[in-house]
Design a protein that fits this description.
Alpha-Beta Plaits; 2 domains; 63% helix; 9% strand
């Protein structure tokens, strides 16, 4: 199922769950349930914002956006993370206010049933969105999934708190606010993680996990004529992955021969990471000092004997300099 369609279902589901939690709060007057409802407002906003960003990110590149619109997902996740943090602050305010001015709670049994149902649906939807988001390299779906799962985890704390309140009567009314404060901490930490990851994407921060996966593929399938790899850059924008690198090949290769090697590289990357890949390879002609890194048989231009290959890892492949000197 396409990420846009999944996000559309998440947005609609967030509206339904928000309505259910508002009903539960109206029946019980519990500030703990109110905190859950407030977080659901964020779910609603984030759901429709994510739907918009996915639609925008899916647009083909144009003259104004030559690298496509994939960064719209990072912006959407940044807004979602900010909203999550704001909802945590609101929860803290309401919880402290309730501690100072406590009020009686009503119909906790009905409210508890509604919250349990909403929590279960949240977890299942979040788990599904996170799995599909990782599969489709969609940060919006992954962020939405984490948010929904965190909402479900906080619901567990709410359920425990409501059960304690039901058993204790009015003696432990302050427990309602204490549970809300604990939930606020969880919510704000989740918001920070979502915001932090979004900013790293906007700033093109190196994704170590992704670049290591690319290097494992290249290292495993490297050919003797692929003498050296350096100045490697890997960036993920939504479902589109950009790979830039310099590769040393025999200096006497014709343009046609070098093009064959680039096409082989492209097929290799796409076979492992899908067709949504843009590959930009700059070909460097090998230099005499690189002969000791080259295992190409039958080379008539060899100046030195082959010693060993340069291992392609993050440290060696990231630097913008030829190896072997």
């Amino acid at each position: 199922m396409a990420p846009i369609r999944i996000q559309r279902y998440i947005a609609i589901l967030s509206l339904v769950l928000f309505a259910g939690k508002i009903i539960a709060w109206y029946l019980t007057h519990s500030v703990t349930i109110l905190t859950d409802a407030l977080e659901s407002i964020v779910n609603v906003i984030a759901g429709f914002l994510g739907l918009f960003s996915l639609s925008l990110a899916a647009m083909p590149r144009d003259t104004n956006h030559p690298y496509g619109h994939g960064k719209a997902e990072f912006l959407s996740s940044a807004v979602e993370g900010t909203l999550i943090i704001i909802s945590g602050i609101i929860i803290i305010y309401d919880a402290i206010l309730n501690l100072m001015h406590p009020h009686a709670l009503e119909k906790l049994d009905i409210g508890l049933v509604i919250i349990i149902i909403c929590g279960g649906i949240n977890y299942l939807a979040g788990r599904y969105a996170e799995i599909k988001g990782k599969k489709n390299n969609s940060m919006v779906l992954v962020s939405a999934g984490k948010h929904l799962k965190t909402d479900a985890y906080s619901t567990i704390a709410i359920i425990i708190g409501l059960i304690i309140l039901m058993l204790s009567g009015d003696k432990w009314h302050w427990m309602d606010s204490i549970v809300a404060l604990c939930i606020a901490g969880i919510v704000m930490f989740t918001g920070y993680k979502v915001l932090r990851r979004s900013i790293s994407g906007i700033m093109d921060e190196m994704d170590m996990e992704l670049i290591e996966k690319v290097l494992v593929v290249l290292q495993k399938s490297r050919q003797p004529q692929w003498i050296d790899l350096h100045n490697l850059r890997v960036i993920q924008y939504g479902s589109m992955m950009h790979v830039d690198a310099h590769m040393s090949m025999p200096w006497y290769y014709t343009v046609a021969e070098a093009d064959i090697e680039i096409q082989s590289l492209e097929k290799l990357i796409k076979a492992h990471f899908g067709n949504q890949v843009e590959l930009f390879i700059h070909i460097d002609g090998c230099l005499p000092f690189q002969c000791k890194l080259c295992s190409l048989d039958g080379c008539m231009e060899r100046k030195e004997q082959f010693v060993k290959h340069m291992e392609w890892n993050v440290e060696t492949s990231w630097a913008n300099s030829k190896h072997g000197e």
